[in-house]
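Review form for a predicted model. The reviewer records the input and the model, then writes brief findings.
Reviewer: anonymous (R2)
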Amino acid sequence: MEAPSKVSSGHEPSKKPVIPPRTQKPRTRRSTDDMDLKQPEHDVRALKRDYDDIKQELRITLRENKEQATELRDLKKQNVHLKETMRTQGDSRSFKDQILSERRKFYEHVDMLDDHIAHLKHQLEKTKLHMDQLTFQTREANEEKTTYESKLQNLQKQNSRLNEDLTECRDDILRLQPPSQIPDSKIADEYNNVYHQIASWVDDEAEESSAMETRLANLLADKDAPGLLKSILDNDLIHATKRYPDAEPLILRYIIQMHIHRCILADTIYLFGLDEHNEIILRSIARAMEDLEPKREFLTIQRWRSETLQALARIDGFQSEQNRKATAVSKDLWTALTYLLPEISAQENGWKRLHDTITMPAVRLATNMRFSTSVYRIITHLPRSSSSSSSGHSDSHVIYQPDIQRYSIIDIATQKILRQDSVLKIAEDGRIGEHVMVVQPLLLRMQKDSAAGVALCKPAVAVKLDEPMARRTKGVGKMAGWASSWFGGEAPEAGRT
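Model under review:
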């Protein structure tokens, strides 16, 4: 099909108007100017008319071109459709062959699917059979599980009962077991350490005291003297220091140990640092436990007391309260000692050494004694001598020769400790002197069925001998001459010591 020919718009381009030649006329300057303006205006109007005509023609031409382009597109579509129709008619035979081939493939695929479906049905039957078996096995397993759960519950109940029995057995074993006990040796070592520290402090601080003798002589009459000293020292002790000036260190040791005992180690103190309210409660509980039925053993009550006091000592604030009270004890003692020993008052924080070396070890000793299930007792007075009771004497101030084995006896005149072989004058009833004061008290561990107790540390006793100790001389022959007078009997035979 031939392409459409280009259609003319039917309008010819407009010709420019012919401008007539200008006639040469003489004119004035004004007329000349008017003519020059009118001619271009005429030309512009002519050009506008031509421009409008051309624009109209262009618009018509574009519309015609658009219509022709639409007809051309339609013709192209018809041409493509015709080409497709011709190609389809030409390939119809090969298309039929392709259809047959695809059909064969389809039937083969259908047969394969049928075989696969048959296989799946067979597998489904096998799976169903396996599921039936699993269901049966699961049912059996559930029955066994139920049986085992029932057995497990029974075993758990038995285990719970056995645990309860075990707990009861443990409690019984703990009740039957002897409680953890602080050994007597530790208590004795701490006790000896306290009094060793007292002796060391006195030896260091009272070596060159010149005012103590005067202060002791005027103690009872001095209104400014500390009440602590007046409550401890009596006339006998003051007179003893006047007679034996060298005994002042023993007096100081006696003052310190008596104050420490009264404030820290006394049997009446339930636990040093414990407030009065809690002490009353604990004592009341202990007394009530003794009245319970069935009767509690003494050890049971002691164990309760020991564990309760140990628990109280762990409460916040107890340690600080104990330290506060210990500091007050140290400062009171320091005030009394500076009265007797003015030289030490110049020491800065001098009470601190006294506190660290004497008071705090005494506090630890008192605490361990109360934590123990045993009952310890400190005897500050001199027990009645067995010799005096057997001989009919009742004066507890008298010291007899057998008491040398029971006590550490210190001669107040010479500061020497008496031994078994010390040369002493012994009276007919065995008397060797009179006790002045207890420098180190007796430490006893009390026994449940006995009021005597077991002595852990012997007391140290300052004694005023009836006769001064004689010097020992070598050789038995030299001793024979005075043996009868000093030992209260016949002279020993030669060769005896």
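Findings: The longest strand covers residues 431-440.
Further findings: The longest helix spans residues 29-176.
Recommendation: see findings above.
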